Amino acid sequence: MIAVEHGSGSDIGRDRLLAFSDAIFAFAITLLALDVRLPDLPAGVTNAQLGDALAQLAPKIFAYAVTFAVVGLFWLSHWRRFQFIAHVDEPLLLVNLVLLGFVALLPFPTAVLGAHGDLPAATVLYVVNLSAVGLLGSASWFVASRRGLVRPDVSRSDELFGLLRGLPVPIVMLGSLALLRFGTSVVELSWLLIFPVQSLIRRFVRAREGPPPEG
Amino acid sequence: MIAVEHGSGSDIGRDRLLAFSDAIFAFAITLLALDVRLPDLPAGVTNAQLGDALAQLAPKIFAYAVTFAVVGLFWLSHWRRFQFIAHVDEPLLLVNLVLLGFVALLPFPTAVLGAHGDLPAATVLYVVNLSAVGLLGSASWFVASRRGLVRPDVSRSDELFGLLRGLPVPIVMLGSLALLRFGTSVVELSWLLIFPVQSLIRRFVRAREGPPPEG
Amino acid sequence: MIAVEHGSGSDIGRDRLLAFSDAIFAFAITLLALDVRLPDLPAGVTNAQLGDALAQLAPKIFAYAVTFAVVGLFWLSHWRRFQFIAHVDEPLLLVNLVLLGFVALLPFPTAVLGAHGDLPAATVLYVVNLSAVGLLGSASWFVASRRGLVRPDVSRSDELFGLLRGLPVPIVMLGSLALLRFGTSVVELSWLLIFPVQSLIRRFVRAREGPPPEG
Amino acid sequence: MIAVEHGSGSDIGRDRLLAFSDAIFAFAITLLALDVRLPDLPAGVTNAQLGDALAQLAPKIFAYAVTFAVVGLFWLSHWRRFQFIAHVDEPLLLVNLVLLGFVALLPFPTAVLGAHGDLPAATVLYVVNLSAVGLLGSASWFVASRRGLVRPDVSRSDELFGLLRGLPVPIVMLGSLALLRFGTSVVELSWLLIFPVQSLIRRFVRAREGPPPEG
């Protein structure tokens, strides 16, 4: 029987997972650039009219920039995680596939939020999609860690940190939905809590670990 | 004469086949995300109207999710197969190209099935495309196996299993067309037979192989 | 001064050229799949109407299949050529970029030919684009050969063959334009001469080389 | 604590940055090929009418060719820069991400310039986007150089040259905006100054370096 279940942790297998993931991240990060385009303007358009037409593209450019930042940061997380994952196997490939499925969707709720950020439905959609990516990031680290695919030089508290690291986004964003009755601006402002929560997690792991090594 | 015919089994050659395949799989898997987009809504749209507009996207999101799952599983098969193929040559590249041609088409019948799943023409189209990918997967393993491109540590029954592994999809799906006069739902339900057929094949190969190794 | 001019023949540099080329080939080969899509049909469409709508997609599917075959074969040539190119430098990167610029255009004349294959303008456009890709393929081998980037185990007659190998497409296709006054079908039929011309070139190189090695 | 901050300069990390960058460059370089397509023409169109329709695509083909050249040269700069960068870390990944964000936008101002090159707004938009890519190229070299990610065999004057190399495009283009009141043609003509400025920078670095090595 082909040794598919146990192992197949060859380098090529990992390289392909990464190449496939990078191609899908690249697709998601650039997708909204397709929307940044001028409509056909009449001949003899003036400079002021062109300026107006460009100004009307501002929400599209904004949605593109936000998608680029968000997908870029998720890509950076993915990159960072796989710096510490030495092997891959089929369960990890499957979790990663589901993660990629939500990554490739990201431009959609971002565009909806860009156009209708004041409406609860747009906010909820955005929160659900980003939280899914965050949770699946932690899930893929969990699978890698459980199945012994992580590099041997990664310590126990490193493994814990890798697991917790992806959680601030879903925790804060899903929690923020409790504030929906105060308006979508309050919800969106509360997302800034992601940063202090991240630093709390970092401190919590460090405290469990004992004093940080010198240097 | 350049040694194109015999060999060229260098690592770079194999890497390129895989990189090219991954880029095309990534294209096919994300294509229907392009369709998941809100139409321009009038200014001052209410939350309920936005919710309705999002709900109308459900079939597009469904088609996207199905394509993601199907292409993802075919990618996983491709990944698994090439874990055991050590070299590539031009005949294998050609079979792989034809396979990719059908993979990149997959979003099309999936979208048709999503919109018109109750009509026989949609079902037939879907069956034909998926079966083609399945058969070409087995064909590429057959070519690799015949031309000695498979890793030397792959046993005879492994090779047989690799060949049979891709067949449940085309066997069940093409066979299901015989049920078309009972309606498309019956046809689609019968696709669940793919799973028991897969496990039958696994048992058949294992039986030929003698008792499974311990551990 | 940074050693850009002489060398930089590191493996990473070559890998990037290939990865970038493969991504552009993948784009070109799949582009026309975007056109293979059903228009929105009215609710309650019958199976016969769906069949008609699918049948009307035949020219799009044909253009997709032809593009897939043509771009696929050009990719195969590119793959084969770079099996024998050990290093890359900036002149080779530039020639390769121009080649890729014509490759990414290929879907356009193919779609035009699919829709208006009976008109001389469509035929000329197609001939010019394919011939450009063929000539630039030979040019990139010429540059690699001249600048000593080819693997040392490639013999002189191999190098010559690599150079001539890309020429049958432009020679036959540009020559076929002389037949335009007999109608586009005659022109298109004459493209079948590509195959005998290829085998003539092969024989010519082999003749210069002396008797083929045994085995 | 996971060693994310210091180092992670593994080869895989660098390979992924390059693969991701190449996929986004490939997207940007081919995007405008999507616009090079014939509208549906009426049945029985004559050859002259098809010729007219093709001629009307000239501005689109021009915009595609310019984008291909510009993105291609930026890709070449990126390629060249990373020939001398041995390791990557997160700050470099971040600068590179911002660079890619502007690269993926490039087709947009190019298409606007192609359609409205005579209007100042189009010219300003184009200048700003290209200058941003140029400056971010220099910034990424600066980050790599400061953080010790550059290959050890790169000399001090090489490092300086790598830094200055990206500046002619933003210096000349941003400076050219001072000429806007003389008309956009004057501005666009002045961009030819990029070439002498590049050669000046080359001389300046060489002068600081002392006599060039023999051979």
- Count every helix of chain A, treating DSSP H or I runs of 4 or more residues as helices: 10
N-to-C span of chain A? 50 Å
What count of domains describes the coordinates of chain A?
1
Biggest β-sheet description of chain A: none
Biggest interface found: A-B, 37 and 43 residues
Bulk shape of chain A? globular
- Low-confidence regions of chain A: 1-10
Write down the secondary-structure element order of chain A. HHHHHHHHHH
What is the gyration radius of chain A calculated from CA atoms?
21 Å
Give the strand content of chain A.
under 5%
Estimate percent helicity of chain A. 55-70%
Using DSSP, what is the number of strands of chain A?
Answer: 0
Oligomer state of the chains in this structure: homotetramer
Mean pLDDT of chain A: 87
Structural class of chain A: mainly alpha
What topology does this entry show?
Four copies of one chain form a homotetramer.
Chain A: H1 11-30, H2 47-55, H3 58-83, H4 90-103, H5 107-116, H6 120-146, H7 156-165, H8 168-176, H9 184-190, H10 194-209
What does this structure look like?
- The structure is a homotetramer of 215-residue chains.
- Chain A is 69% helix and 0% strand.
- The longest helix of chain A is centred in the middle third of the chain and has 27 residues, at 120-146.
- In chain A, helix 6 (120-146) runs antiparallel to helix 8.
- The N and C termini of chain A lie far apart (50 Å).
- Chain A is globular.
- The relative contact order of chain A is 0.10.
- Chain A has helices at 11-30, 47-55, 58-83, 90-103, 107-116, 120-146, 156-165, 168-176, 184-190, 194-209.
- Chain A has one domain (11-209).
- Chain A is built from ten helices and no strands.
- The first copy, chain A, has 215 residues and is mainly alpha-helical.
- Chains in contact: A-B, A-D, B-C, C-D.
- The interface between A and B is large, with 37 and 43 residues.
